[in-house]
Design brief:
This protein has 165 residues and is α+β, with helices and mostly antiparallel strands. The protein has six helices and seven strands; from the N terminus they run βαααβββαβαββα. The chain has a single domain, classed as Gcn5-related N-acetyltransferase (GNAT) (Aminopeptidase, 3-Layer(aba) Sandwich), CATH 3.40.630.30. Strands 1-2-3-4-5-7-6 form a seven-stranded mixed beta sheet, sandwiched between helices.
Length: 165
Amino acid sequence: MNGEVSFRKPTSEDYELVRGIWEDPETMAAVGGVQPRSAAEYARWFESVMVHHADVNCYFLVFSGNDCVGEVSFHHYDRTAGTAELNIKTKTAWRGRGIGKRALHFILSVFFNEWGGREMRDTVWEKNPLGRNALLKFGFREIGRPNGDFLLAFERTDFFQLRST
């Protein structure tokens, strides 16, 4: 892989970078398909997630060198329960290079170390066995099957055990 993997919070000017992820059919196939948004809809999303609800959402773009290769985030952080919902997408052309694993480790570190989270959850679409298997291999465990999908979880203690090995 060329270049280091890095992460940065998007700005209001990053519409085209986010659009490049959300509107890529191959990248989005595993999560239910393309999510097209106009520039105005993106601006509303950005304002909602990154400004008004920044206390419950944490979103980063993922870069390899200068190339935006994905996104990683968590949403709906519940301070009382210490839980949040994971989101991770790596553009298809960049998969298989360890980027997703680095992004997952990064967002879990932010969640557990900076936000004080206790359990990260992800509802994985039943038609996404690659995503499910990748999370299980990382150490997530299945805790339910809502609507036929897979509810996976990764606890704080799992993260610190992972770091000590």
